[in-house]
UniProtKB/TrEMBL annotation:
Alphabetically ordered keywords of this record: Membrane, Transmembrane, Transmembrane helix
Name of the protein this chain belongs to: CXXC-20-CXXC protein
Organism annotation: Shouchella xiaoxiensis
TM regions (residue ranges): 42-65, 71-92
Superkingdom: Bacteria
InterPro entries to which the protein is assigned, alphabetical: CxxC_20_CxxC (IPR026369)
NCBIfam families assigned: cxxc_20_cxxc (TIGR04104)
Length: 100
């Protein structure tokens, strides 16, 4: 797995820069051009989220039957894991693509 690169100057984002992209800064630190997540990487990043919410969590609830606190901790753990994993799925573009 590799981290994203700037669509303008091909600067390879560090993990920290890619993480910051999720929450605030949307510009390349090298050339200062605004970067947008491509439609395909938006969908690719959404697939693990959808699988966790619509498949994994109901399976955990049905077969494990955890208490509310256990279930809450599992949800928080999966959220943290997914948040830490998402920067590896990003691909940047110079143009904003419409996302359905």
């Amino acid at each position: 797995m590799k981290l994203p690169t700037c669509a303008s100057c091909q600067h390879s984002f560090t993990y920290g820069e890619a993480m910051r992209y999720q929450f605030s800064r949307r510009k390349c630190p090298a050339c200062k051009q605004k970067q947008f997540i491509t439609k395909s990487s938006f969908v690719t990043a959404g697939i693990p989220s959808a699988l966790i919410v619509f498949v994994l969590l109901p399976i955990i609830q049905i077969f494990w039957g955890p208490s509310f606190m256990e279930y809450f901790l599992v949800v928080i753990g999966l959220f943290v894991f997914l948040t830490l994993f998402l920067p590896f799925l990003y691909v940047f573009s110079e143009k904003q693509e419409p996302i359905p």
